[in-house]
Amino acid sequence: MLPPQPSPVSFEHLPDGLGIGVATPRLTWTLPSGAGRQEAYELELRRGGTTHRTGRVDSADHLLAPWPGEPLTSRERAAVRVRVWTPGADEPSAWSEPSAVEAGLLAPADWLAVPVGAGWDEDPEAQRRPARVRRDFRLDRTVAHARLYVTAHGLYEVEINGRRVGDEILAPGWTVYPHRLRYRTHDVTGHLTEGANTVGAWLADGWYRGKYGFDGGTRNIYGTDQSLLAQLEVTYDDGSTLVIATDATWSAAPGPLLTSGLYEGETFDARLHDPDWCTAHRTDPVEWTPVRTGSRDPGTLVAPLGPPVRCTEEITPVAVTPAGEGRYLLDFGQNLVGRLRVTVDGPAGTTITLRHAEVLQDGELATRPLREAYSTDTLVLSGRGPLTWEPRFTLHGFRHAEVTGWPGELTADRVTARVYHTDMRRTGWFECSDPLVNRLHENVVWSMRGNFVDLPTDCPQRDERLGWTGDIQVFAPTASYLYDCVGMLDSWLTDVGLEQFPDGTVPWYVPVIPGEPMWTPIHPGAAWGDVATLTPWTLFRRFGDRELLRRHYPMAKAWVDLVERLAGPTRLWDTGFQLGDWLDPAAPPDDPAAGRTDRHLVATAYFAHSARHLALAAAELAYGADAARYAALADEVADAFRRRYVLPSGRMTGDSATAYALALAFGLLTPQQRGPAGDRLAALVLADDARVSTGFVGTPLICDALTDTGHLDVAYRLLTQTECPSWLYTVTMGATTIWERWDSMRPDGTLNPGGMTSFNHYALGAVADWLHRVVGGITATAPGYRHIAFRPRPGGGISWARTRHETPYGTASLSWELTATGVTARITVPEGCTATAELPGCAAVDLEPGEHVLHTADLTAEAA
């Protein structure tokens, strides 16, 4: 009997292999339970009626292994399977189940389609009514298979013969459109029928030409057209093909969407909608007119690197409160990102209005924090019977909703909140004996979900929702534990590189759009620009993708070289505009950058940290000269930092918690200075009764700085504080997501008076990375978790914790509990990995793959 089979292979970082944009996709598989490790593997590639086997490949690697044959060509399909040799087995394992891969359109010449949209004149400065486009065609024989390659200037949803294609929303997502516009490949074989067929699409403005950004927003950021670009390729059973591409033969008409905007919401008039508009038997009376064709460089069309935005959960309201005359207030019990789906019946012309907000103020929706994101959806009934409806091209951040104009009684079963975000695979879990800490962790998860909507945004509810570089820089370690977000972030980092200035400046947010005077002209800023060096490194360490590190290395190098020029021979970055420790709780509501920590101390610390990580990346990539140069530069900057900001005693000239956290966490102090600096940091925290005194920069670092200098007890006191400002203060105030400000809602229930306050903002939730590594006890000590340290450090009255992470190699888990005789830990080491376990007061022990139960009473005590 053959040993058990490995998992089916996966391709790159994609959920499936359909429409892949890489001619030689890398392959990953996990080993069967009990395999221990891999000594060798063999890949089988079936393509075009031929089979190719690699033969035995002596290698322990099963993460992102090289493609086993000639590159794929456009549209080519193949099947791949693997078998492995493991220690002690006389024969290889059984073959894995085959995995299918199919290339998308890999060459610009593959594209025949051109953008098509409304042919009528429009006012480019007005809110324009969205169009629909369609094309009739006939199929005169049996279809073997069919593919739709599709994208848009704006947003789209495609139908074929009245049936929706795909289930993603806000397609094609938001990229730096002039350089990269994603297309997606759909298998539409089952949508087609012999004889008459119709393909059509709903269109909307989206990020492309909708009003977006600060101060009322800017229209037409990327263009004035609203266009579909689609190519339907049909292969008959005799091998012949038919291509239906968007061109001048298509038609357009205004649709039943009267208005649609990402901030504004959507208005749908059901009286104007024929459900059969995209079928051969339609009856719609609307006049369809020829489309206007546009142009698009097909060289800018790219396949996705990660999953799309989809509905991942549905939530019914926990309370429906009548407020008189057809008005109701709804509470969904959870701050979320999505939209409402309603089922309703009423007379023609009945108008139902849906408004959204994150919190209530005096029993009504608190809409001031939304600024000019009106978040209002409107449905006009047709009178033709019950209708189930939700908006198509908008999203809202909300826990509460107001429904007005509802005919009759609104009950909870008639309305559902549908949760939307990039459909990443969940990979990380944490829970412990403290229910408040558990709720905090859930809040972090929900804030990540709400802000990973095609790109990592800062907030999902107000007139912003931008890809702020500093926010994800501090949150990436947490994000990459909770979800398989590497494909999505790789794509976004590609856009960061495209938006980087020739001098190396990294914008505050990507994609770049017109901003407030504070953000334009764009200038370099510490912590935000350092996303170029630190986030690719984080992703490499968590997912083991060295080629990702290589692709983004030029961006990282350009950033560090820029800061080196700005600092000059002093090696101190002490000039220019900086945000410092943004949103320090001591900063006034109208000046979030005016915190307690010297902004240029922050900038110089980050300069040293980025130079160090650039050196590490260069070493990983075997760029020996760069590794030596940037390691020396990091040493020089650290030395300059100490001379300017650190006293010989280890005390700092800027006596703030963030200053000490930076110096300690970034390794900027001498061994002799670390102890006194850690003591001073602990004293500052205790002097403030363990209330948080840090902002975006200090918060992700402070618990580690305390832990690593022997003040674990103080870190736990900081974690478990419930007075404002603190992480658990927000929980005691009923928060179900992470807030932008520590006091977004004040203890008396009033909202922070600042013009910038959000109740869904993941940055301050970066403490979850400390929960995973220190409380939970799982740390990656080699890229991709190939080696793992299991080192829980109990404290804070927490008596047990359970942590689990789906590494690229399989499940790693640690469950520990305090017992009368010590600590008991149950550990799972993934197949193909090695590990060490270190329980409190005990020496480290080496672990092989598999299940382990350890108890401190049975282990050797640590050497003094």
Account of the protein in words:
This protein is of the alpha+beta class and 864 residues long. It folds into 5 domains: 10-103, Immunoglobulins (Immunoglobulin-like, Sandwich); 108-302, Jelly Rolls, CATH 2.60.120; 309-422, Galactose-binding domain-like (Jelly Rolls, Sandwich); 439-775, Glycosyltransferase (Alpha/alpha barrel); 785-858, Sandwich (Maltose phosphorylase, domain 3), CATH 2.60.420. Helix 4 packs parallel to helix 6 (546-567).
Q: Briefly, what is this?
A:
With 864 residues, this protein is of the alpha+beta class.
Gross geometry: globular
Number of H/I helices = 14
Helix content: 10-25%
Q: Give the percentage of residues in beta strands.
A: 25-35%
CATH fold topology of the largest domain: Glycosyltransferase
Q: Oligomer, anyone?
A: single chain
Largest sheet: 10 strands, mixed
Spatial gap, N to C terminus: 51 Å
The overall strand count is: 45
Estimate the mean pLDDT confidence: 96
Radius of gyration: 28 Å
| Low-confidence region ranges | none
Structural class by helix and strand composition: alpha+beta
> Could you name the CATH class of the largest domain?
Mainly Alpha
Our count of domains comes out at 5
In CATH terms, what is the architecture of the largest domain? Alpha/alpha barrel
